[in-house]
Amino acid sequence: MFATTIVASTALSRWDVKSVLSKNWEGSKEAQRPIGRFVRRRREENIDANGVRYGSIHFDGSVSLRAEGTKIAGKTWIARADDLVFSKIDIRNGAIAVIPKEFESIAFSSEYPIYDVHVSGGFLPEFLQILCRTKIFRSQVEALAVGHSGRRRVTPESFEDLLIPVVGKSTQRRIVDQYRRQLDVAEQLIVDAEDTEGLTVRAFMDALGLVYRPIEHGRKFVAVESGSLYRWTFRSAMSILQGGSALADGRYRSAPLGSGDLSVLKRGVSKSPRNRPGDNARPYIRVANIQKWGLDLSDVKEIDVPPSSLKSLRINAGDILICRNNSMELVGKAALWEGQIEDCVHDDHVFRLALNLDELHPEYINAFLATPLVRAWFQGRAQMTTNLAGITGDAVVDMPIPLPPIRTQENLGREFRDGLMKAHSQRMDATKLVEQALSQAELEIAAAHADGRVDF
């Protein structure tokens, strides 16, 4: 089925599909102005490269500091609080933000144009942050991106020519205040979710008699006995200090996860040009499908697996899927498979743990793998490549697992699942509130723009 869209040629900024499909603010063009009229490019070179931390702009519009000691080749530039900064490549994915007031100064590479918002006095920085998150603004930015697929950029010049609605200061303040109130509720839901998750994990580990000792972020020196090290690395030492070597010291007897007939670890299918989806296309699970709260099956890819190989690769209900390769923070994250998709397999970046269901309850094992103690265990044994951490099968099968009675396992697993699902629900409610707040703000901006109310 084909849809037809008709627009006036004079309304197009470029003769391409993206320009045709981009959304526009309703109301008179005379009430819109180029964003470059209200902001000015800041070109303050970062002379003292060791004195200012580098920053990152995330797809949700948040700002964070990169790790201390991060090095960036070439010139870098200073952004100040309330400055508008975007990524030339990822602005179309949402990487645009007003620098929060908590950052007096923060540095970026030349890939991040920086703008002084206060130069004209026309826009409140908080309002501009909201405007840049609206669906209409992001649609227009997407239409500006040019270049090859995956590396399309928005140039500072085209960004500065982007037309935005001009609304009055009093309207801006009202929209910001209303948006802030809704965000405060959402932020409290996030705090509640973190509390729920923390209590859930603590109760689970207390029941097993296990203790996790968090280490403050940024610690550079630790002292441990050399004989206790899995390997001579800082991460291995940190794992020991956090309790990752004490998994066998709880109130129940323990055994290596892969010992006896407790479980069998399986590898997945390696992707290659030869197994692109064809006559035997099968859905498969990859690292991106395994989330902290469980499985995200909204985007499941396919891979070609002949019938002769399907039995050995098929994921069965009760299997545990474990990320073999990921970032250091996420390597080893796991999820329980409950048979959601028929004849589903997994790729080689995901381990599959087939359990002896007479000895191990799937929800209990899934919960145990989600504890910070197990995170410390995996991180202490992870091997780093350029930007990816990986664990071997030995890191999984050698891991001590407490073995309470199967009924106790079932109860502990269920309570852990319920707690994490409650936390996930609180986070989802927070996300919905933010989306509603943004939609309401966009409607308010559009209405004020259509009425032509300007009071600054």
Task: Walk me through the structure.
This is Type I restriction modification DNA specificity domain-containing protein. InterPro entries: Restrct_endonuc_typeI_TRD_sf, Type-I_RS_S_subunit. Keywords: DNA-binding, Restriction system. This protein is an alpha+beta fold and 456 residues long. 33% of the residues lie in helices and 17% in strands. It is built from 11 helices and 24 strands. The strands form 9 sheets. The chain has a 4-stranded antiparallel sheet, with helices on one face. The longest helix has 46 residues, at 406-451. The model is unreliable at 14-21 (pLDDT under 50).
What is the strand and helix layout of this fold?
Layout: H1 17-21, E1 32-34, E2 40-41, E3 55-57, E4 63-65, E5 76-80, E6 84-86, E7 96-98, E8 105-109, E9 114-116, H2 125-131, H3 135-144, H4 156-160, E10 163-165, H5 169-208, H6 234-242, E11 254-256, E12 263-266, E13 281-285, E14 290-291, E15 294-295, E16 301-304, H7 307-313, E17 320-323, E18 325-326, E19 334-336, E20 345-346, E21 350-355, H8 362-369, H9 372-381, E22 383-384, E23 389-390, H10 393-397, E24 400-402, H11 406-451
Parallel strand pairs: 13-20
Antiparallel strand pairs: 1-10, 2-9, 3-4, 5-8, 6-7, 6-9, 11-24, 12-21, 13-16, 14-15, 17-19, 17-21, 18-23, 22-23
